[in-house]
Amino acid sequence: MKALQYRTIGAPPELVEIPTPEPEPGQVRLKVTAAGVCHSDEFIMSLPEESYAYGLPLTLGHEGAGIVEKLGQGVTGIQVGDSVAVYGPWGCGYCYPCSKGQENYCENAATLGIAPPGLGSPGAMAQYMIVDNARHLVPLGDLDPVANVSLTDAGLTPYHAIKESLDKLVPGSVAVVLGAGGLGHVGIQILRAITATTVVALEVNEEKLSLARDVGAHHAFLSNAEAADQVRKLTGGHGAHAVFDFVGIQPTMDLGRAMIRVGGDQVLVGVGSGTLPVGMLDTPWEASLRAPYWGYRSELFEVLELARSGAIHVETEVFSLDEAPTAYERLHAGQLRGRAVIVP
Asked: Any residues with CB less than 8 A from the CB of 212 and at least 6 apart, and which?
């Protein structure tokens, strides 16, 4: 089968022919219908050799959807032919967080060597993929896998981040979205769908601000030296109730800190490498700083229901598997509107 693999540190991913995998007992083989391209892929492929820990060769793709094509021995509860999305942050299934569907915070995954598809295990950018357990499959039903595969990360991650701040996002509140790209443009829609907050989007150019407005931002400003003052002016000088940073580099983290109010939430979703001081003289009173990771299995069901109702969607550009290297080039150059999706 064809697969897109990261094979050499520092080199672009390569399209290769590899054997079609067979499911072991308890596993499921999917015929992949769609796979999402994510900045996290670019992040891990930019790591120097001493920091890279995901194994080589690595079949990319932690956002996946497919048709159940073959069941390993003992698998029950699903049928060949089912259309499913893949819940990516796999855990052990037995610890307390996993028992609640919070496998993104599994206590044993690192010790047991359990890794998400495309981030340590073979991912979805191939004609077929193996899913380690049927519990990691969520029914898509009549949802188009190409249009919705990115929700397994680009929807689930902002949804989880936003849900943890729902008590702050009451009528009259203001939430800031830093970065209206692949995750941020979905985050804006989620904020509009499940909260009464006023949504302010900050981006680096007018094209991305246009996308933010198109998907529902009440206000959209350039992310520059004036942005914090503009947000404070909107809030009577008090600042934002929540800032969701989908970039996570030093300038956006500093900007978020400059506009957060007393008691507000600063939520670091992006995978940049900035840092912030925390302490009595550095943090607004009662303000919190969180760095959530992905989301819960139950939340993926909820995200897909939002899509089914029409409340959220992902702006997508579609590429064939042969065109997948080009999709990553476009991602690196910042030339994608929303999310790229690979269709084998």
From this structure: 177, 180, 184, 185, 188, 201, 203, 220
